[in-house]
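@channel sequence for tomorrow's demo:
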Amino acid sequence: MTVANIFNNVSKHSQMFSFNIPLHMEHLAYAIMELEGNNMNYVVSNTVSLSELESYFSEDYVYFGDVVNMPETSDRQAGIIWELLSLRQGSPVLELGCGYGRIANRLAERGARVAGLDISPMLLKKAEADAAERGVNVEYVLGDMRSLPWRDRFDAAFLWYTTFGYFDDADNERVLREAASSLRKGGRLLIDHPNRLDFLRHKSPICYVAQRNDDVRIDIFSNDVLSDRSNLDRIIVRDGCVRRTNLSFRQYGFSEYVRMLRSAGFETVEAYGQEGGAFTYDSSRLVVVAYK
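structure tokens (generated this afternoon):
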């Protein structure tokens, strides 16, 4: 793919972001040349290693966090999770892949008793600092969502903002079994994920652009239809440096979720669209709520 083609893709698709911000073109060109120099070719695996996850969810991820998800957006999403999981004051709830506490700390402010697990010590440190600033107490734990330290403890658990599907099918289903084991009888599990049907309607690759001050983040998504995985090539241009990371996640349809969740020990499974609305083929998100 040539520089011109990538530039046209960015220009064509960047308006898909609700946070579209005018770019300094020299920074965008710098990132695009970096992409072309690497030919945008990398080997796509059916799983993501923990080291790759830590590399992707780095300080750069936090730096652009409030641009991609503004505080009022995070407030609204925490409210949606609260309602869909039927949380109450004192409800014990677990977030898997909690990151820097964007949602977990807001649920704690609402009165839930929250635990958060993540594989990144840096993100957990940011989450703890934010919790201290908000005056809330959240139990943050360093760990792998495929092997949880809790059994029969929580009323609810959730994986938000495409936090499911990083591994191969066997390990993804292991995550669901571990989540089920952490829940009490009657517990609820929520998973928020892109709607595969809507995602595949767009011509690949799709380019998303975000800017904070003079720094730029470019995300280029492509689909591997043979493996049902979405692949993200991310370029960060920040403080005069260019960094590149990759991420891959499995795209599941609702019927696949039903099969996996029932196998993991859940009895009923419901589907919602973005922000808890009705789920249709053109919903941008698929929100699954399963009941143990």
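heads up for whoever presents: Confidence is low (pLDDT under 50) at residues 1-27, 34-43.
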